[in-house]
Automatic annotation (TrEMBL):
Keyword Disulfide bond applies: yes
Subcellular location: Late endosome membrane; Lysosome membrane
Segments crossing the lipid bilayer: 83-103, 109-129, 162-182, 253-269, 281-302, 322-344, 356-377, 405-426, 438-463, 469-492, 504-524
Subcellular location, principal: membrane
Topology class, membrane: Multi-pass membrane protein
UniProt-listed Pfam families: Aa_trans
Protein name: Neutral amino acid transporter 9
Ranges of residues in domain Amino acid transporter transmembrane: 81-194, 259-521
Catalytic activity: L-tyrosine(in) = L-tyrosine(out); L-asparagine(out) = L-asparagine(in); L-glutamine(out) = L-glutamine(in); L-leucine(in) = L-leucine(out)
Source organism per UniProt: Anseranas semipalmata
Gene: Slc38a9
Record key words, sorted: Amino-acid transport, Disulfide bond, Endosome, Glycoprotein, Lysosome, Membrane, Metal-binding, Sodium, Transmembrane, Transmembrane helix, Transport
GO molecular function per UniProt: L-amino acid transmembrane transporter activity; metal ion binding
Amino acid sequence: RPFHVEPTNIVSVNDDMQRVTDEASAMNKRIHYYSRLTSPTDRALIAPDHVLPAPDEIYVYSPLGTAFRVDSCTDGYGKNSSIVTIFVIWNTMMGTSILSIPWGIKQAGFTSGIILILLMGILTLYCCYRVVKSRKMIPLTDTSNWEFPDVCKYYFGSFGQWSSLLFSMVSLVGAMVVYWVLMSNFLFNTGKFIYNYVHNINVTDIVPGTNGSNKVICPSAASDRPPQNRSTVFSSGNSTGFELFEEWWDKSQTVPFYLIAILLPLLNLKSPSFFAKFNVLGTISVVYLVLLVTVKAAHLGIHLEYNWFTENEFFVPEFRILFPQLTGILTLAFFIHNCVITLLQNNKNQENNVRDLSIAYLLVGLTYLYVGVIIFASFPSPPLSKECIEQNFLDNFPSDDIMSFIARIFLLFQMMTVYPLLGYLARVQLLRQVFGNAYPSVFHVFVLNIAIVGAGVAMARFYPNIGGIIRYSGATCGLAFVFVYPSLIYVISLHRAGQLTWPALIIHIFIILLGLANLIAQFLL
């Protein structure tokens, strides 16, 4: 029988851990979805009736990944097989950062880009393994509902609580800004394709590109050329109407503002859990992107030339000083440390957690490698330079490309369903910490949503560079959740147990320094 809690009742897991009854513990499992959306360091949960999900449901989120539901048993351990667990982790991690991987490889150089993807995958996997083990090293009777930010609070007190909130907000707001920039881009290209098709208008972009049915363009080469949408009408159609359309349908000047009318009302919903039902779109989008990359590469062929340290007109060196830009992207691309404990807790065979996590990371790394390497290698150089690879590789295909049009439609709809969930997560984390209530008033929620939407619109208007936004936010939140906290907690736990050795101390100090260097380098290069 469901255990009912009035909205004013509070279940404090940290303070009453020893005397929580079995019935209240079962109820906590039912509201685990809500607890995952609160600040994980604050276990004083206020659970209104309207946010209570159906029994045995847990929702986990990754900033640039997808929302995914896993089923939980009442004893705290899940019923997912290893295959399902691996897929859940892969699906949760895979996100829009995949669009910037080819650009990151170009910035780092082809050979160094491949090496960095492998090394960052191994490093983030090791830190993720430390996150999973961190909770088991706490000498308390019940930490089954804890996530990694709870562990940070246990070891570092209020500093760990507030700093984890800060870095979590950086990852969430950064992801929402990236989403707004990408949604503006996809909506613009989709609208342009539909308008031209309906009005039978053939448009040639004033952008360098290849000829033929599989056209590839270089938008950055024409970034200083008017008009703003850089297109010219070459066939029948109302040229005046087309010019008016281009004036009111501009990628940076108008389209980002149109999204406000659609998404701002959705952000103000008290419980947007309805949108989590569309998480399958994330998987479909990634699979379709892999298919798109494969088909394009089959038509374009491979275009590689190895220049180890020198740069020529069409190719970049194999090693470049700009490689930290790729490591910043990869920090967020491999980021799942904030919810990995919950994902693995629902694994039927707990003894396989390390193996399953390693396989999931391997699959994620291979997916990134495949998309990044294939796009870079097949980019037609000559006639175009590898420097033309855009921060969103779909921008290298014109708006009238059918496969790219379908990809943009998939991604646009997927992002419009994930965006309200990320906004809800950011709202509940911040407002609960500051006001003690996830929904203090309509005014508080509206002001916060206006600030988040304003940041997205401003970036889409003045700095629509998703690669830059991803690497800055990734290096910032990764400094805490990937490099510093897992290493410090492991060193502290070893010290308390009297098992700390000099090699372990030196290795984990080195990992912390790598994270710090990764963040500093983003602002220097």
